[in-house]
Design a protein that fits this description.
The complex is a heterodimer of chains A (152) and B (313). With 152 residues, chain A is α+β, with helices and mostly antiparallel strands. Chain A contains six helices and five strands. The chains are: A alpha+beta (152), B alpha/beta (313). Chains A and B meet through helix 1, helix 2, helix 3, strand 2 and helix 4 of A and helix 1, helix 2, helix 4, strand 5 and strand 6 of B.
Chain lengths: 152, 313
């Protein structure tokens, strides 16, 4: 009996440990941003609601958490965007808006003779995972994205 | 064998207990963390609120300490609290159109140090954009779409549009086939289209600011920028639009300490010390006196009401 209980406990513990990541409350966007933003090459500015609405057409009232940060240097492509949106339709629209912005950003930087920056934008991808959307454009993009990916 | 097996099961049981304890501690810590950790939007809002509160308290302190009036660059004087209201009423919901220099200003507007009146300005800016491409279908990104600036402006329906374009074409003016006259003609086409699209809007043309002395070349010279601005000012009268002289705030050359790239782009100091006072002056100059008086009365009434509430307490 004792043998069975112990075995059951062990299996339960392993299952629980496996599911732990999914069951526990996900890390907040604020904490994630705090952990990855120091890796940025330049100075990032967290853009305000008015800018987010005018540029991306995103009503921040629809987002449960968000950060839209971009370099304060217009010649730099560096960007970190993360947001959560429970409404599936809006999530789709908003992630498309962010995706649409990439082609113009790439064109802007290419026309400005900043091929390395344009390439960073070209290689960047908007990623969706459940209600979470993120985009990282940076020389450290893959490291930052990995941290985000591992945390959500 | 049986004894050894029992020992193993006991050890396993103890390990289970430790594991269970770890889960419990982890859970408690996570709960505490989530309680402590507000969302980024919350944090930003709190920070902004704190900044606003600090700014407001600073303003209040200023008001209490002195009744001196703020002097704008051209000698127009206005009480700071009244000024804030006038600028807010003048710029709220209005459109700012431009290239990467304007893009830098739009980023500055999101910073906590930016004044409240700049927060509800609509920016239509695009890096490497210019007068020649101002009418192209792929104008500045707006509300998630790439579209012509005229389409965006027809959606915004601003009362006022502030335009700063041309620096990207200054380089070309030194090349064969390009001239100030041709560029001004292009600007003229743009102005006509804007007037057709948003006929009731007032247009404000901000002149081109200089580059740093170090980056001047044979075909990119501050003297060309100056010549262009002279021609632009003359044309503004003809076009019946407002000419905004931002460039003179910078002098003949852009000082490196006002530039983010030691070339043509502006840093926060430039936006704070040159752009903001210039725009504040424009707001005061272009706001009818009766509007300023009405705002002043409103302000006095709200101050009286606040005073009464404080006295009641």
């Amino acid at each position: 009996m004792f043998k069975r209980i112990s075995a059951l406990l062990l299996v339960s513990a392993l299952v629980l440990a496996g599911c732990k990541e999914k069951n526990e409350e996900s890390v907040s966007i604020s904490s994630l941003y705090d952990s990855i933003s120091p890796m940025a090459e330049g100075t990032l500015v967290v853009m305000d609601d008015s800018y987010i609405s005018n540029y991306y057409g995103i009503d921040t009232a629809d987002l449960s958490e968000y950060v839209f940060a971009q370099s304060d240097n217009p010649k730099s492509a560096e960007t970190i965007i993360m947001f959560r949106c429970a409404d599936e339709e809006k999530l789709k629209t908003y992630s498309s808006a962010v995706e649409n912005s990439l082609s113009q950003r790439e064109e802007e930087l290419a026309n400005y003779d900043l091929p390395d920056e344009a390439k960073l934008v070209k290689n960047a991808k908007v990623t969706k995972k459940g209600d979470f959307v993120y985009l990282v454009i940076s020389d450290m993009g893959s490291d930052m994205s990995k941290i985000i990916k591992d945390s959500i | 064998m049986n004894k050894r097996a029992n020992r193993v099961y006991w050890m396993l049981f103890i390990m289970m207990l430790i594991l269970g304890l770890c889960f419990a501690i982890d859970g408690i810590r996570a709960e505490k963390h989530s309680a402590d950790d507000s969302t980024i939007s919350g944090q930003t809002m709190i920070n902004n609120e704190n900044n606003t509160a600090e700014a407001a308290s600073e303003e209040l302190t200023d008001d209490e300490d002195t009744t001196e009036e703020e002097e704008t660059t051209e000698g127009t004087t206005i009480d700071p609290a009244l000024g804030e209201r006038v600028y807010e009423s003048f710029y709220n919901g209005q459109a700012f159109v431009g290239d990467s220099i304007m893009k830098g200003f739009s980023t500055f507007a999101s910073k906590s140090e930016a004044p409240a009146w700049l927060k509800n300005v609509v920016f239509l800016s695009k890096t490497s954009w210019g007068i020649g491409s101002a009418l192209d279908a792929n104008g500045p990104f707006f509300r998630g779409r790439e579209q012509s600036v005229c389409t965006s402006l027809s959606e915004i329906k601003p009362k006022r549009v502030f335009i700063n374009l041309g620096i990207n074409e200054m380089n070309g003016l030194g090349s064969p086939g390009y001239s100030i006259e041709k560029l001004i003609n292009k600007y003229s086409e743009f102005i006509s289209k804007l007037k057709e699209t948003i006929p009731s809007a007032e247009l404000y043309i901000i002149n081109i600011t200089p580059c740093t002395a170090e980056k001047e070349t044979a075909i990119f010279r501050n003297s060309t920028i100056k010549d262009f601005n002279t021609a632009l000012e003359a044309k503004c009268e003809e076009w019946n639009v407002n000419y905004v002289d931002l460039a003179s705030g910078f002098g003949d050359v852009l000082l490196p300490e006002l530039s983010s790239d030691n070339f043509v782009h502006h840093n926060d100091k430039a936006y704070r010390e040159i752009w903001l006072p210039c725009l504040e002056r424009i707001a005061v100059e272009h706001t009818p006196e009766e509007t300023i008086e009405a705002i002043e009365k409103e302000l006095e009434a709200s101050e009286d009401a606040t005073g009464e509430v404080s006295e009641d307490r």
